[in-house]
């Protein structure tokens, strides 16, 4: 179950970029140069002396670029429908049919449509050329599919590594947070914080900073949390005072009450008590409207994918 969730998260968050357009262009020029010679269709020794060679080189490169780009789009489409990790057999079948055989046949058709009108010898020249070069076309597309699979596996491995590191960081942060909380409880029990109200003493607290001073804020008193540009978090309380801390939003969501707090766009955590209402926009995104005391905060949105879940959460009694 853990592996399946990891794979689903990989496909929801990562769109594998197999080959950049610059690399596709360079490959197209090199392979176009290779495939437009040597045969009777274009004599290798004389090709650079004939102006038409450069036209053939350009057209061959254009065909190759179209095949590369189409293969790139096809693989990204298939990643959403049939993952190599969860649907290996159907993905392999689809890859052979639509990622190998069909591109090879389409390349042959493109060559016929593009070059047949340009030679006076017609099929007598193009026929031998295609028979001679088709095996190289097929081999090239086969290698291309293997490269796509290799890039996919490498990208997934990097994603897993990043998730592991992130989980370890969150685990450490959460452990530090719990230790600080336990230390605070010991201090409270020892009577070292006599000036703290009974409400704060009984409530779980979060260690934060106000300027250079350490403070302890009850979790139930947090109204709004957001990620700032410098990767620190700002806690806005009902008193409109802001505190800084270094805990990640994911770590805080593990200790906050999910019935009272909602994580939005992975940038904000908002307390239900400060939400005045919400409005659905034309694209399915929800704009959250805060109560007057917090109107100075930037606009907060809920993504289209999370819109239904947010409505259920907000309307829950």
Helix-strand layout with pairing:
Blueprint (H helix, E strand, L loop, with lengths): L1 H12 L7 H15 L15 H31 L6 H28 L7 H67 L8 H5 L2 E6 L2 E6 L3 E6 L5 E5 L4 E4 L3 H5 L7 E4 L3 E4 L3 E6 L5 E5 L9 E3 L4 H9 L2
Antiparallel strand pairs: 1-2, 3-4, 3-7, 4-5, 6-7, 8-9, 9-10
Helix pairs in contact: 2-3, 3-4, 4-5
Provide an overview of this structure:
With 317 residues, the protein is α+β, with helices and mostly antiparallel strands. The chain folds into 2 domains: 2-167, no CATH class; 204-315, OB fold (Dihydrolipoamide Acetyltransferase, E2P) (Beta Barrel). It has 8 helices and 10 strands. The strands form 3 sheets. Strands 5-4-3-7-6 form a 5-stranded antiparallel beta sheet. Helix 2 (21-35) packs across helix 3 (51-81), helix 3 (51-81) runs antiparallel to helix 4 and helix 4 packs antiparallel against helix 5. The chain is elongated and about 90 Å long. The two termini are 31 Å apart. 18% of the residues are buried. Residues 212-315 form the HTH LytTR-type domain. It holds the Pfam family LytTR. Residues 157-194 form a coiled coil. This is HTH LytTR-type domain-containing protein. Keywords: Coiled coil, Membrane, Transmembrane, Transmembrane helix.
The N- to C-terminal Cα distance equals 31 Å
- Overall structural domain count: 2
Global structural class? alpha+beta
- Low-pLDDT runs of 5+ residues are 38-45, 192-203
Residue fraction in strands: 15-25%
Order of helices and strands: HHHHHHEEEEEHEEEEEH
Major beta sheet summary: 5 strands, antiparallel
Global morphology: elongated
Quaternary organisation: single chain
Rg to the nearest angstrom?
30 Å
Helix content bin: 40-55%
Number of helices: 8
Mean pLDDT: 77
With strands numbered from the N-terminus, the spatial order across the biggest sheet is 5-4-3-7-6
- Let me know the number of strands: 10
């Amino acid at each position: 179950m853990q592996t399946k969730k990891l794979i689903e998260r990989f496909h929801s968050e990562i769109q594998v970029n197999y080959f950049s357009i610059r690399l596709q262009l360079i490959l197209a020029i090199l392979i176009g140069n290779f495939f437009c010679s040597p045969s009777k269709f274009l004599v290798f020794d004389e090709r650079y002396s004939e102006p038409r060679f450069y036209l053939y080189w350009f057209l061959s490169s254009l065909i190759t670029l179209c095949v590369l780009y189409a293969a790139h789009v096809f693989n990204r489409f298939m990643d959403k429908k049939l993952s190599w990790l969860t649907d290996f057999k159907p993905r392999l079948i689809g890859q052979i049919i639509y990622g190998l055989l069909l591109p090879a046949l389409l390349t042959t058709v493109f060559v016929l449509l593009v070059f047949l009108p340009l030679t006076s010898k017609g099929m007598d020249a193009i026929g031998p050329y295609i028979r001679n070069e088709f095996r190289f076309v097929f081999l090239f597309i086969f290698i291309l599919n293997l490269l796509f699979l290799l890039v996919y596996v490498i990208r997934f491995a990097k994603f897993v590594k990043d998730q592991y590191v992130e989980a370890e960081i969150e685990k450490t942060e959460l452990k530090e947070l719990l230790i600080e909380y336990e230390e605070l409880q010991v201090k409270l029990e020892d009577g070292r914080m006599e000036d703290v109200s009974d409400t704060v003493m009984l409530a779980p607290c979060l260690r934060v900073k106000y300027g250079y001073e350490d403070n302890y804020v009850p979790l139930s008193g947090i109204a709004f949390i957001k990620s700032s540009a410098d990767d620190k978090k700002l806690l806005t309380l009902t008193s409109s005072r802001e505190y800084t801390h270094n805990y990640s939003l994911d770590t805080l969501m593990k200790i906050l009450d999910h019935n009272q707090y909602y994580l939005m766009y992975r940038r904000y955590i908002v307390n239900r008590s400060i939400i005045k209402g919400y409005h659905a926009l034309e694209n399915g995104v929800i704009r959250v409207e805060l109560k007057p005391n917090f109107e100075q905060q930037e606009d907060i949105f809920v993504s289209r994918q999370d819109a239904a879940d947010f409505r259920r959460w907000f309307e829950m009694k």
